[in-house]
Amino acid sequence: MRIRAETVADYNEVFQVNVKAFGDREDEAQLVENIRSSQGFIPELSIVAEKDNEIVGHLLLSKAVVQDGEKLYDVIALAPLAVLPNVQKQGIGKALIQEGLERCRTLGYELVFLIGHPEYYPRFGFQPAGLHGLELKQFAVPENVFMVCELKEGVLQRIKGELKYPETFF
Ligand SMILES: CC(C)(COP(=O)(O)OP(=O)(O)OC[C@H]1O[C@@H](n2cnc3c(N)ncnc32)[C@H](O)[C@@H]1OP(=O)(O)O)[C@@H](O)C(=O)NCCC(=O)NCCS
């Protein structure tokens, strides 16, 4: 298996991977398309897993901000993550997340947020964001699915406020 950045030639295949992973619905695939054409898109953070020349998984990380009064902090939002149903539970999601977090760290980002399965993401260092004084008001979700991963030690003590997803997410 090879983990690499997505290229323009992959767009159609990535669309299909997202459709299939999310039970034959297009919402997440469309979200990927919308983020790609937005200011929050960072090409090297759209990552694919390739097996036998076929794309079997995709992860997108893009820009968001945390607002604390007048202060704005640049952070990353992880969404979506998709692995083809016939190859799930083989470590492809794990490989994509690990590579994604490493790339974010290299680019200098300190926090990665997501809304996701509370049993899956803690193994990669994600914790409930609410425990650290971070808020989410744009989506009404249970507390334990709004998570954050600290890429640099101590950052969660310094940064508080409300996570704001860009317009593209709505
Ligand atoms: C979630 C997903 C990306 C995981 O990818 P994957 O390649 O199967 O994951 P990995 O092989 O790295 O990890 C497998 C582990 O994740 C767990 N897992 C998979 N889906 C899960 C879910 N929905 N909730 C909780 N745990 C889940 C498996 O039980 C397995 O646990 P184990 O290692 O303790 O046995 C994949 O199942 C998927 O595409 N699901 C549909 C789309 C989706 O829900 N995306 C995430 C939105 S938050």
From TrEMBL:
A Pfam family reported for this protein in Swiss-Prot or TrEMBL: Acetyltransf_9
N-acetyltransferase domain span: 1-152
Annotated InterPro entries: Acyl_CoA_acyltransferase (IPR016181), GNAT_dom (IPR000182), MshD_Acetyltransferase (IPR050276)
PANTHER family from the UniProt entry: L-AMINO ACID N-ACETYLTRANSFERASE, UPF0039 PROTEIN SLL0451
Protein name: GNAT family N-acetyltransferase
Provenance organism: Paenibacillus odorifer
